[in-house]
Structures are given as C-alpha cells and as structure tokens.
Design a protein that fits this description.
GO terms for molecular function: manganese ion binding; myo-inosose-2 dehydratase activity. With 300 residues, the chain is α/β, with parallel strands linked by helices. The protein has eleven helices and eleven strands. It is globular and about 45 Å long.
C-alpha cells in the first residue's frame, strides 16, 4: 500500500452516532481493541470516545492506533457564522491535540439524514443561491481557522444533504478556494446517490485529502429509493456494508489512489446494525479484501 497511505476504521460499525440503539452494548474499549485486532492503525471518533486528549491517547497508543479525523456538523446555512466558528474551534483544538491533520466537515443546515420519516431521495435539500453563498463563504472561513493549526478541512458530501450529487460537488469545488477547502472522497455515498466514484476521484484528486471506503448492497439501496425510505431506514435495512461485501469494485479506485501517490488516510466505514453484521467480523473482512487486492497485483 505504500507509506503514504494509512488504513483506518470508523467506529460507526460498533456504535451508531445517529441511532445510539445500534450497538448500544458495544463498549469503547471493545471497539478500538477489535479495530487493532483486525489490523487497522487509525480510527475516527465515535460518541463513546473520551474527549480528554490525554485519556484518549493512552487508550489508543497501547493499541497502536492514531486519530485520523472526526466529523464536524456545520450549520453555515442556518446559524450565525460566529456560532459555527466557536464550535469549530473547540473541535479543531481537540483534533489538533490528538495529532490529526484533517477535519471532516458536513453541512447539516436543512439536512434530512437524521430524520427517520423523511424520504431520502424525494425530499433531499437543495440550496438556493443565497444559501450557497453563505455555505461556501463559511467553509472558507473554517478552512482559515484550520490553517491556523496547520490543518485542513475536508468536506464530506453526504446522502440527504445539500452536497450529495456530482453537480453539487462540482458547484462546491468551483465556488471555494482550493487552499481553504479540500474534499473527502466517500465511495458509498457517491454510489448510493447514483454518481460515478472514479469520475469524482479523477476530477478532484488534487483536492482530496481524506478517503472513506464504504460499499453498497445494490438491492437494498434500490429498495430505499423505490420505497421512499429515509436515510436512517436505509441504514437499518443494510444499504451500507464494508468493501468487498457489496457492489463496488475497489480495485480500480485503489489503483488510481496508489498510482497517483495519494497521501493520507483511507478509512473503512459502514454503518450497519452490529447485532446483524458483527462489527469485528466485517472490519476484518474489509481488511482482508483490501489486502487481497494489493497481493493479487491489481494495484501497481
């Protein structure tokens, strides 16, 4: 895989931040221990993780884990910028203390991803011109705050939000300064939305500073659209899974990343019900799948 790429795992498979009932009985220590046992070297931050950097560092260091990043919900389109900036600074300083270099940002103003009864595709928010201006100006302001600590913001396009489609990603990228706003590349959200992940990867590779590897179960994703389910209902039904268990061929994606010398984290992520899909088993399945791609020589 090369020294420039580090492989991490997200805790959302063990305990779901949006639906705490999923994985309620899985402890923080079980989560990070099983990540390390599966062979990962990094983690993102879940709702059960200690927020004291020294405490968290101790738990992670003895397991050989680093913090790759953590999600920040911005409300740039719906809240005063100064309020968002104050929350962001607290989040930034925590991640800086943990040694992270990128900060995951996703705009949650008008988002429907947490609304259990709102149809995911029929009622996806669409920003108007004024909202786009507030949003992109605000993101650049957060990017400037991140740069104060030598960090970068990576914007997370996401199902059920104002930046989900190829056209919306295009608008975000064309409306922001590359020195202030970078991109998180998430395979699962692109494919679920109906986008072409390789197209996005090739078009914006120079701005991609963080990667999420997530797979899609084709039939379940199609049913979510057909039956007008919400995002959370889709998660519960099992629309997402780990690489190697769904419809996405990750070999050409990994090939592109390595051939073009991507440097940063690839984080395996799949929000599933751990009572149905054991988090450790699926994390290990993904790790073995990625290793197999490399060992078979599909990546050069």
């Amino acid at each position: 895989m090369g020294n420039q790429i580090k492989l991490g795992c997200a805790p959302i498979a063990w305990t779901n931040d949006d639906m705490p009932e999923l994985g309620r009985n899985n402890s923080f220590e079980q989560c990070i221990s099983e990540m390390a046992l599966a062979g990962y070297t990094g983690t993102e931050i879940g709702n059960k993780y200690p927020r004291d950097p020294e405490v968290l560092k101790h738990y992670l260091d003895i397991r050989g884990l680093e913090v790759a990043s953590a999600w920040f919900s911005s409300f740039l389109t719906t809240q005063p910028l100064e309020e968002v900036k104050a929350d962001f600074i607290e989040h930034r300083d925590f991640l800086y203390a943990m040694g992270a270099e990128v900060i995951v940002v996703s705009e949650q103003g008008s988002s429907i991803q947490g609304q259990v009864d709102t149809p995911l595709f029929a009622e996806k928010p669409v920003f108007n011109e004024k909202e786009w201006k507030r949003f992109t100006d605000g993101l650049e302001a957060l990017g400037e705050l991140a740069a104060e600590k030598g960090m970068s913001i990576v914007y997370h396009h996401h199902m059920g939000t104002g930046v989900q489609t190829t056209e919306e990603i295009d608008q975000l990228m064309s409306s922001t300064d590359p020195d202030k706003v970078s991109l998180l590349f998430d395979t699962g959200h692109l494919v679920f939305s109906g986008e072409d992940p390789l197209e996005i990867l090739e078009k914006y590779f120079d701005r991609i500073k963080h990667v999420h590897f997530k797979d899609i179960r084709r039939n379940i994703a199609a049913a979510v659209r057909r039956e007008q389910d919400s995002f959370l209902t889709g998660v519960k039904k099992g629309a997402f899974t780990v690489p190697g268990d769904g419809m996405i061929d990750f070999a050409p994606i990994m090939n592109y990343l390595t051939r073009h010398h991507y440097s940063g984290w690839i984080v395996v992520e799949a929000e599933q019900d751990p009572d149905v899909c054991n988090a450790f088993e699926y994390a290990l399945k993904a790790k073995r799948y990625i290793d197999e791609i490399l060992q078979k020589g599909k990546v050069r």
